[in-house]
Amino acid sequence: MTVYGIPNCNTVKKATSWLTEHGLDFEFHDFKKKGITAEQLAGWCEVFGWENVLNKKGTTWRKLSAGEQAAVCDQNSAIAVLLQHTSAIKRPIVEVDGKAVLISFNEEAYQAELSKP
After folding, report:
1. Cα 4 to chain centroid, rounded
2. Active-site choice (1, 2, 9, 18)
3. How far is CA 39 from CA 53, 77, 82, in A?
4. Tell me: the pLDDT tens digits for 56-108?
5. Which of 84, 70, 68, 1 is closest to 35 using CA atoms?
6. List of residues 6+ apart from 72 with CB closer than 8 A
7. CA-CA distance, 73 to 115, in Å (whole number)?
């Protein structure tokens, strides 16, 4: 299992704490330091929808100019912005066996998805 995010994000901290408390092993991928690929973002967009992968509630999005925000109208334009501003990726994203299964943190969703036999 791989958890993608940034370490100082409160939502990432909640998710990783929950995983640790439930004895689940995971690798943490800090996409501010290790980066992220367009292909990976495209895969996440296919699973969750680009509107969900792009965090419009965060500080990074709000700091973009009105023009930069208005230019985001589809998956390709969203990916271009996310590659440039990785902090605008909703986090964490959890992959199990290379497949994206969870975005953000919701305890019930984590319990349902990660408690499968």
Report:
1. 6
2. 9
3. 13, 14, 12
4. 999 999 999 999 999 999 999 999 999 999 999 999 999 999 999 999 999 99
5. 84
6. 54, 78, 81
7. 36
- Spatial distance between the Cα atoms of 16 and 52, rounded to a whole number of angstroms: 20
Residue 24 to residue 20: CA distance in whole angstroms: 6
Domains parsed from the chain with CATH numbers: 2-114 (3.40.30.10)
Is 45 among the residues known to form the active site?
Answer: no
> CA-to-CA distance for 60 and 52, rounded, in angstroms?
15
- Residue among 62, 5, 86, 117 at smallest CA distance from 15: 5
Q: How many CB atoms lie within 10 A of CB 109?
A: 14
